[in-house]
């Protein structure tokens, strides 16, 4: 994607061929800062403290974290220790474990002396594969939007109104995004599309990240409070919802940013199509019941009680929004059952959220 005319991915190899550069997403939307990761500890911190975030990007960062770890200790014991440290950073997104498993599979059979080069090569491949999968996912989702637009245009409509939750754009992946990849493809194809952007408390990834990248790309959008979506659906102002996912079960349940479940309930009640964009590494084939089996990350209560923003003087600062002494709890994700989902948009096509349909798209996992 492009920022001020310059093409970027969210993660790339530094010019010295050793460090790994990332966009510090905790500084957006007000500051664009590139950081260089130079050690396993740097990668661990970047994932845990959400300098990088979004399931596919977490996986890519973990892959490069393993590459950095081989420079410190490429033995079997070193790989195992690096795996454990990176795996512990974020418990919900399955792409993290998937990428770590891919790295171990690529490195374990090799002599220790060959592992550094192989680690960097496999991490780069994982990044390229993610970008390709999300581009294909975007093409498949764009067809859904195009079909809806053809019907709405024939009825005299002026634009497609799409609602999304959290950030599942290119900032959450290596490139293109998951939920927003169809939006970018549709916009680039000339379809008039407008995006309702949930602010997504408590970290405000919608207001700070989704709005920022839509603004960069020139896509019309409006930021709304998290509780506005149901009202918009009741009044016919939402044509479809597309969200991302951090883990999808083999039965089609979807775990995504907290508040997604409520959007799905509102969409169901108002007959609004509810889609989920997901590259296949986000599917956890070992889990059936998302509500019972997916671990839900609980993050610091400070994310709930405090908020970052820019003052009128232009200073970015943090302020407390709750009374002194009021406790808070901060669940990072919730699970939307398959019965509420219209379809899953993958790189191989679109299918209903069911075990049979998922297996039909990915027969090698059956």
UniProtKB/TrEMBL annotation:
<dbReference type="GO" id="GO:0046523">
    <property type="term" value="F:S-methyl-5-thioribose-1-phosphate isomerase activity"/>
</dbReference>
<dbReference type="InterPro" id="IPR027363">
    <property type="entry name" value="M1Pi_N"/>
</dbReference>
<feature type="binding site">
    <location>
        <position position="90"/>
    </location>
    <ligand>
        <name>substrate</name>
    </ligand>
</feature>
<keyword id="KW-0028">Amino-acid biosynthesis</keyword>
<feature type="active site" description="Proton donor">
    <location>
        <position position="246"/>
    </location>
</feature>
<dbReference type="Pfam" id="PF01008">
    <property type="entry name" value="IF-2B"/>
</dbReference>
<protein>
    <recommendedName>
        <fullName>Methylthioribose-1-phosphate isomerase</fullName>
        <ecNumber>5.3.1.23</ecNumber>
    </recommendedName>
</protein>
<feature type="binding site">
    <location>
        <begin position="53"/>
        <end position="55"/>
    </location>
    <ligand>
        <name>substrate</name>
    </ligand>
</feature>
<keyword id="KW-0413">Isomerase</keyword>
<dbReference type="InterPro" id="IPR005251">
    <property type="entry name" value="IF-M1Pi"/>
</dbReference>
<feature type="binding site">
    <location>
        <begin position="256"/>
        <end position="257"/>
    </location>
    <ligand>
        <name>substrate</name>
    </ligand>
</feature>
<dbReference type="GO" id="GO:0019509">
    <property type="term" value="P:L-methionine salvage from methylthioadenosine"/>
</dbReference>
<comment type="similarity">
    <text>Belongs to the EIF-2B alpha/beta/delta subunits family. MtnA subfamily.</text>
</comment>
<dbReference type="InterPro" id="IPR037171">
    <property type="entry name" value="NagB/RpiA_transferase-like"/>
</dbReference>
<comment type="function">
    <text>Catalyzes the interconversion of methylthioribose-1-phosphate (MTR-1-P) into methylthioribulose-1-phosphate (MTRu-1-P). Also catalyzes the interconversion of 5-deoxyribose 1-phosphate and 5-deoxyribulose 1-phosphate. Part of a bifunctional DHAP-shunt salvage pathway for SAM by-products.</text>
</comment>
<keyword id="KW-0486">Methionine biosynthesis</keyword>
<comment type="pathway">
    <text>Amino-acid biosynthesis; L-methionine biosynthesis via salvage pathway; L-methionine from S-methyl-5-thio-alpha-D-ribose 1-phosphate: step 1/6.</text>
</comment>
<dbReference type="InterPro" id="IPR042529">
    <property type="entry name" value="IF_2B-like_C"/>
</dbReference>
<feature type="site" description="Transition state stabilizer">
    <location>
        <position position="166"/>
    </location>
</feature>
<feature type="binding site">
    <location>
        <position position="205"/>
    </location>
    <ligand>
        <name>substrate</name>
    </ligand>
</feature>
<dbReference type="InterPro" id="IPR011559">
    <property type="entry name" value="Initiation_fac_2B_a/b/d"/>
</dbReference>
<dbReference type="InterPro" id="IPR000649">
    <property type="entry name" value="IF-2B-related"/>
</dbReference>
């Amino acid at each position: 994607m492009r920022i001020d005319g310059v093409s970027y991915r969210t993660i790339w190899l530094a010019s010295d061929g050793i460090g790994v550069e990332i966009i510090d997403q905790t500084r957006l939307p007000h500051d664009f800062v590139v950081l260089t990761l130079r050690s396993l500890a740097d990668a661990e911190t970047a994932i845990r403290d959400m300098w990088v975030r979004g399931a596919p990007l977490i996986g890519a960062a973990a892959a490069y974290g393993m590459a950095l770890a081989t420079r410190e200790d490429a033995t079997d014991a070193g790989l195992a220790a690096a795996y454990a440290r990176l795996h512990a950073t974020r418990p919900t997104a399955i792409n993290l474990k998937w990428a770590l498993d891919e790295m171990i599979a690529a490195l374990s059979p090799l002599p220790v002396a060959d592992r550094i080069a192989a680690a960097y090569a496999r991490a780069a491949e994982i990044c390229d594969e993610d970008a390709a999968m999300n581009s294909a996912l975007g093409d498949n989702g764009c067809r859904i939007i195009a079909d809806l637009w053809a019907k709405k245009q024939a009825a005299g409509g002026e634009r497609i109104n799409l609602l999304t939750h959290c950030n599942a754009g290119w900032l959450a992946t290596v490139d293109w995004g998951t939920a927003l990849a169809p939006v970018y493809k549709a916009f680039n194809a000339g379809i008039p599309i407008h995006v309702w952007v949930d602010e997504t408390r408590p970290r405000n990834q919608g207001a700070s990240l989704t709005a920022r990248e839509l603004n960069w790309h020139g896509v019309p959008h409006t930021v709304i409070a998290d509780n506005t979506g149901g009202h918009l659906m009741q009044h016919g102002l939402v044509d479809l919802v597309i969200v991302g996912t951090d883990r999808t079960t083999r039965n089609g349940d979807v775990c995504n940013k907290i508040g997604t479940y409520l959007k799905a309930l509102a969409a169901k009640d108002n007959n609004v199509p509810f889609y989920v964009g997901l590259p296949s590494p986000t599917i956890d084939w070992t889990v059936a019941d998302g509500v019972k089996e997916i671990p839900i990350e609980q993050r610091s209560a400070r994310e709930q009680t405090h908020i970052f923003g820019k003052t009128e003087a232009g200073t970015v600062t943090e302020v407390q929004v709750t009374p002194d002494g009021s406790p808070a709890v901060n669940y990072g994700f919730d699970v939307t059952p398959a019965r509420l989902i219209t379809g899953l948009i993958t790189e191989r096509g679109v299918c209903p959220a069911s075990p049979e349909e998922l297996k039909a798209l990915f027969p090698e996992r059956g």
